[in-house]
Amino acid sequence: MTIPHAETQQLQDCVDYQTRILEDVSRTFALTIPQLPDPLRTSVGNAYLLCRLADTIEDEPAIESDLKTRLGERLVAVIHGEEDSTAFAKELGRHLSPSSTPAEHDLVANTERVIRITHSLSPTRRHAIERCVRIMTQGMMEFQRNASRKGLSDLPEMDRYCYVVAGVVGEMLTELFCDHCQDMQTHRDHLLSLAVSFGQALQMTNILKDTWEDMRRGACWLPRDRFLKSGVDLASMEVGNSDQKMAAGIHELIGIAHFHVEKALEYVQLIPTSEVGIRRHCLWALGMAVLTLRRIDTTPDYTSGNEVKISRRDVKSIILAVNFTARSDFLTRTLFASLKRKLPLTRPSHNEVSVSTA
Fold first, then answer.
1. Cα separation of 358 and 18, whole Å?
2. Cα–Cα distance measured from residue 73 to residue 69, given in angstroms and rounded to the nearest whole number
3. 0.85 exceeded by pTM
4. What is the mean pLDDT of residues 271-281?
């Protein structure tokens, strides 16, 4: 079947928009997604923007909890083709405040262009993306309703939070990678078992980096049981007051994040060396996370994310190093052994979060 030229041009215009807006909504993914081969690059970029729409709903302070839940459900319906994307975008756009960035306003206004790409994907890729956004929106809204300064109850609850905001993304990417590469399909089950840890490594890094900004907004995603045993009550702690007891809890979580980094590296080594673009996509993000964990570990009195944010020079160094080592498991292991050499390593004592099949 031949696709009419006008329809092909329309779709290409949507892909061009997707490429442009990625640069505005994410510094990291605007770097890593272009490393992927086409058409995988288009699928992953589209999936990221749909997740970003879900994030925009969750993060918008002007939208009350019940409406967030309804908008999340409508986003899933739009992806599934059960609701009009333009009507959804107008409704969400009416509720956005200046707290949402100009790029997020732009993305919402152009939801129809993003969804047009989604609906052009194969059923396998659409199903993987839809499942991810559905689990993410349902999970995020549940955690958002209960968010407070007192933190999450314990490490298993932190695992569940990391799963719905990042682990499920790792699962989705794995499905997209396996659909692209038949050799990866052979290791699909093993990859899926490690994908959650990959997402958790990145998410725990973000949680630790943004701890004080989250607290200033009245939320905390740290496990309070880990801090109570050190004598720290997160709910009553003065924002920005990072004492030795607080630093001890952060140090332990860095060790747990390092454990998940180890699992993420095992994930990457299951990707064929011929798929160097996929390897770069994964390793660039993982390398930046490791450098951030190092900054946090060596700056125990930090009081804002900016104090532990890695520099552009660090980013360039990771890119150059990964580009040199990505085709070799040995060189990749050697590089990351050097990067994380001084990080603490803590094996979680509880069972790891199970992979959802929802």
1. 28
2. 6
3. yes
4. 96
